[in-house]
């Protein structure tokens, strides 16, 4: 399910790109899945069709989706582009923090806490049955 923050600071087309990439990364969209037509998705989300077209164009440029003239847009085989979209802000913020003097070890600790620690969002509520 695509969620957009219409009042947020991030442009709607970028949010849409991230949401689609997130669905690809989570396996909700897989290779050759057809994306909704731009006008249909725009109507469903209550946004301008040109915004959806811009997002689709960016994703196609980055190799995340491909289009077939007269048929529609589809998820491409390569997931790496989706991962790049999803980690772009993380990479930039990491470079900024490291450049500002935050030690590598502190950054790695944050990453461990957020992704692999006992209290990470991915492990909360998951019980070890061993």
Notes on the structure:
The chain is mainly alpha-helical. It has 2 domains: 12-80, Winged helix-like DNA-binding domain superfamily/Winged helix DNA-binding domain (Arc Repressor Mutant, subunit A); 87-116, no CATH class. Helix content is 52%, strand content 6%. It is built from 5 helices and 2 strands, in the order αααββαα. Residues 119-130 have low confidence and may be disordered.
Based on the model shown, name its key terms.
130 residues; mainly alpha; Arc Repressor Mutant, subunit A; 2 domains; two-stranded antiparallel sheet; 2 strands; 6% strand; disordered C terminus
> What fraction of the residues are assigned to beta strands by DSSP?
5-15%
Strand element count: 2
CATH homologous superfamily classification of the largest domain: Winged helix-like DNA-binding domain superfamily/Winged helix DNA-binding domain
**How far is the first residue's CA from the last residue's CA?**
33 Å
CATH topology of the largest domain: Arc Repressor Mutant, subunit A
CA gyration radius, whole angstroms = 18 Å
Mean of the pLDDT scores?
Answer: 87
Write down the oligomeric state: single chain
How many separate domains?
2
Which percent range fits the helix content?
40-55%
| CATH architecture heading of the largest domain | Orthogonal Bundle
What class would the helix/strand composition place it in? mainly alpha
């Amino acid at each position: 399910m695509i969620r957009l923050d219409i009042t947020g600071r991030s442009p709607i087309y970028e949010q849409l790109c991230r949401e689609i990439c997130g669905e690809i990364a989570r396996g909700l969209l897989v290779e050759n899945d057809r994306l909704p037509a731009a006008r249909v998705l725009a109507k469903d989300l209550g946004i301008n069709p040109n915004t959806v077209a811009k997002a689709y164009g960016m994703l196609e440029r980055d190799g995340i989706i491909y289009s077939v003239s007269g048929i529609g847009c589809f998820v491409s085989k390569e997931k790496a582009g989706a991962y790049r979209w999803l980690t772009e802000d993380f990479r930039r913020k990491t470079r900024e923090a490291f450049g500002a003097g935050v030690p590598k070890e502190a950054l790695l600790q944050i990453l461990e806490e957020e992704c692999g620690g006992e209290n990470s969002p991915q492990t909360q509520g998951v019980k070890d049955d061993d």
